Batch of 3 targets.
Target 1
Amino acid sequence: PELNTEDHYAYIVGYPDGNVKPEGNITRAEVATIFFRLLTDESRDEFWSQTNPYSDVSEDDWYNNAVSTLTNAGIIDGYEDGTFKPNGNITRAEFATVCAQFDRSEIDKTFHFSDTHGHWAESFIERAASLGWISGYEDGAFRPENYITRAEAMTMINRVLKRLPETEDDLIPGMKRWPDNQPDAWYYLAVQELSLIHISE
């Protein structure tokens, strides 16, 4: 399956209170829905599904199409007990694994974190890091079992999509602004970029 890297859709719409909550967590269902929206039309049609093997994802759930389609495409998976845990927060390891599934080319895995050796997601984490999509912390750790924040997830998705504004001049004048995303935040540009729509001609 391929992601649409040409048309820059706004894939985050925020909350009813007008905030985007960059430092909050993000659920597995929300992540599935984001990547489902970002699929190319061709990939979405090819892997479209409304059925899945999970005991806790039913046909009338708002995230069913996304979860079913991405499962059919081999991008996401559930747990050994047959559940998907759609409302559970996603970990950094799980998120890195989802990102890594979108590039299966031969690469030189040159990144090694101090706390991922032997982890079930080690190869996916190293792949995503080698592609420049994810990074660890200053102490050399990746903290795979930590829940990923919305800002961290947005930053990684932007890297996957090659949506990489370097200064505010790269953003669109008159853009929507979030009360809880201020210019002095490390994630400011990433959050603003994902809120913008610019379609290629």
Target 2
Amino acid sequence: RYMQDNTGGMACYSSSLSTTARGDSIEVTGVLKDYNNLLEMDPVTSHTVLSSGNALPTPTLITPNQMTNANEGMLVRIDDITFTTNPGGTFSSNSSYNFTSGGQTSSIFVRSNHPLIGKIVPSSPVDIIGIVSEYSYQPTVPGFQLLLRDTNDIILTTSIFINSKVSLTNLSQTGFDI
């Protein structure tokens, strides 16, 4: 789980948080640690749900280069991205997908059992919303990635998408099929 308030966001790992839902206001106690450059709370020693059904934070509009410690754990939006890894293919489990936006590059990570698995990787520009996370084995090398929550975090910006090579059939003087 990731939690966010108006001061920042943080990853919290505990099976006890599996019953919390988006929009829950929670109070959490635990141990802070650095796991592959990600500041997280693990283990969570206690949590209390204070209220439910609260409005989610509005995603902060950033560029790929602004995926830094300043936005780690926070809900963000990056507009006009183009996937450069497997566009037109399908998302797979435990895989990273590179993208570009405004000449800058970054990636999203799709974990196991994620709702994107098996869905088509857009081949046209889209906007995305996700949580800035970090994963790097080298302490001095940042490894920022975006974690999308579900399929709603990919925002289509056009109504026509071509996801595979187009083939032309039944060509005549009055029409054709594609």
Target 3
Amino acid sequence: FNTVLAKLFIYWKWLAVSVVICLCLAFFYIQKQAPVYRIQAMIMINDEFKGSFQNQMQSFQRDFGIVNPGVAIDNEVQVIHSRSVVQKTVMDLGLYVNYSIDNGIFRPDSILYGAYPLKVLVSEEDVERLLTGFSFEISQSQPGTYLISYACLDEEKNKAIVQEEVQSLPCLLNTPIGDVLFSKGEIELTEGKTMTVSILPPELVARSCLNALSVEPTSKTTSIANVSYLDVNKKRGVDFVN
């Protein structure tokens, strides 16, 4: 033990420098991470035969342990937590389009939902054909004029950046994923800021939402399920759970 301490003592300067560097990196990493909110709700699952003879027979059987009282609610929990239900929610809320504003190296990106500087509309048919994500970079070159940039392949199949200067809204641009409509939003884009609009395959978004969603029965003796969802935007998380 003394031998190990003696060797460490020889390199104490390097150890001190390493600790300082690691603490600085950890601090900057934490500063860049956006807070994650947990949205919770409770669902009461109604019995289709409540008050009927079938329900009385089911209750009688449960009292004698003939059937599992938690089977019905377990089935409903599986339905709620299914990919098809989550993907329908993604399509209904338009969650396949994500808006974010870069706040610099040491601050997390602002995730926008409900109010945007510019709204991006793409048909559901074009979205469902997507195999990978597609993004636009939007900035304001001067008041009332927007610069929209996106990547595409040129005639030689090399990646090229296309820049479109838009002076009036709404406008329709023909892009590699189809016709995309840009319209004026509810808020202004701060000068010097860049907004990124990412359009993702709905199936990929649904898979991510499933990982953040938890649906569990509160107990085996009740018909109440607890729904929990994680999101960096509170309003978006509330709408998703609702």
